[in-house]
Specification:
Length: 301
């Protein structure tokens, strides 16, 4: 998969450079692929210290290179600097290719999982932008701005569940699931959602006085931390058992419910309706994943 990924990224690199003549963007494609492959391997091998070390080094280099090349060649240098910060991971790729025999026959029995996972990444990427592409022309950029602030707060609230997900996925894949940690993470997510709901009216007027309309938005989207965390726990379980099709269907349900709800609730409730659409989408996905696990697959922890 390293070979396939790198070859495809090199082809994309060449195509982007020929079309846009942007060396920074072109190198970013290759660097980002290398970054994802290397970090996936370290997490898969449960090398959490190495993962943390490389990640910290990458962030330091990203800031340093971005500033350096910005002063040397301007705004394009920022993208070039970010791209170059990924390349220390090349050493991990080299070691893996050196120590493991390349055998393409290993791909065939996992082809269905790979295709579903690729489709899942596409749906997640599309889902990350679909709401914004709909909100702007439908309800205006003012509502989009308030909604986007809520999304940024949600990203902060979701940091801890995201970290736990990265930890439990390799363990679910090797049959070392941690049921207590998953339950504790959901409990913590409930507390985080409560804090987001309570603190929004206190903190936002101080930090963002021009976005007071976002207070209720943040309170609503904070609730989505709970179903989103439940989703991550079950996504880890299903992917660990190579049931990526279930995760793909769940992602489709989330996207479908969210988009339909934006059109309906956005017109009725404005920005609060858009925020509520996110909660409904995440909750629908959670209901589906929990139901499938309980009544169809009955996977054991």
């Amino acid at each position: 998969m390293f070979v396939v990924g790198i070859i495809s990224s090199v082809i994309s690199l060449i195509a982007v450079f020929l079309i846009f003549s942007q060396i920074g963007v072109s190198l970013y494609i290759l660097g980002y692929v290398i970054f994802n492959l290397a970090t996936a391997e370290m997490l898969g091998r449960k090398q959490y210290k190495n993962y943390s070390f490389y990640l910290v080094i990458q962030k330091i280099l990203m800031v340093g290179f971005a500033l350096l090349f910005y002063y040397l060649i301007g705004l394009e240098g920022v993208i070039l600097g970010i791209a170059l910060s990924f390349f220390p991971y090349v050493s991990r790729i080299y070691k893996s290719l050196k120590n493991n025999k390349i055998d393409f026959s290993l791909v065939r029995p996992r082809l269905g999982f790979i295709i579903n996972s690729y489709a899942l990444d596409l749906s997640r990427t599309f889902g990350g932008y679909a709401d914004k592409l709909i909100i702007a022309p439908l309800l205006g950029f003012a509502i989009l701005g308030n909604y986007q602030l809520g999304i940024q707060v949600l990203s902060i609230l979701g940091i801890l569940p995201g970290i736990v997900y990265q930890y439990i996925l390799p363990r679910d894949s090797s049959g070392e699931s941690n049921k207590k940690l998953k339950k504790l993470t959901i409990i913590v997510a409930i507390c985080i959602a409560g804090l987001g709901y309570i603190l929004a009216p206190i903190i936002l007027p101080v930090m963002f006085p021009k976005f007071t309309e976002s207070i209720e938005v943040v309170q609503i989207v904070s609730i989505s931390v709970i179903p989103s965390t439940i989703n991550l726990m079950y996504i880890s379980k299903f992917l660990g058992n190579e049931l990526s099709k279930i995760v793909l269907i769940g992602s489709g349900i989330f996207l479908g419910v969210q988009i339909i709800s934006i059109f309906i609730l956005g017109e009725l409730l404005g920005v609060n309706g858009v925020a509520l659409a996110l909660v409904l989408g995440a909750s629908s996905e959670a209901i589906f994943l929990v139901s499938i696990n309980k009544f169809v697959y009955k996977l054991q922890e």
